[in-house]
Amino acid sequence: MRLELPARRRLVHTTTVPIRWGDMDAMGHVNNTVYFRYMEIARVDWFHAIGCPLNPQGEGPVILNAFCNFHRQLEYPGDVVVRTYTSDPGRSTFETWCTLERADQPGEPYATGGATAVWVDFPRQKSAPLPDWMRALVAD
User: Fold this and answer.
1) Whole-prediction pTM value?
2) Residues ≥6 apart with Cβ < 8 Å to 22
3) Which residues of 61-79 are buried (b: 16+ CB within 10 A; e: fewer)?
4) Residue 107 exposed, middle or buried by CB count within 10 Å (0-12, 13-18, 19+)
5) pLDDT tens digits for the chain (140 residues)?
6) For a disulfide at 128, which of 4, 7, 89, 121, Cβ 3.0-4.6 Å?
7) What CATH number belongs to 10-138?
């Protein structure tokens, strides 16, 4: 099953992550949980790139859910190119989408996935409206 990215989406960031020897499992390929780590690394890298440091005393994004569809096995050695897209900003949420490819095989998706993010006031532990600057960044 291939994930179809939404037609209305915005490419917001590209990150390259090295595949580490320890990312593999006993079957000799990257463990399924590590794909989520690669998407997390890309998301956090994007947040830092846009000036949205994670601050537990302020506001910021939290992941509500995450998913991944596995198309091909990643194996060590190599690099994974993670492209992050956004779409569908709501009052306090937005969608993120990722494609994962090997750097030496561009255009061949090894996995596709995503996550729903909610903007949170951390001290109050409640959702908060997306700031205008973030809405502008994630809008298609």
Assistant:
1) 0.91
2) none
3) beeeebebebbeebeeeee
4) exposed
5) 455 666 678 999 999 999 999 999 999 999 999 999 999 999 999 999 999 878 889 999 999 999 999 999 999 999 999 999 999 999 999 999 999 999 999 999 999 999 999 999 999 999 999 999 999 999 86
6) 121
7) 3.10.129.10
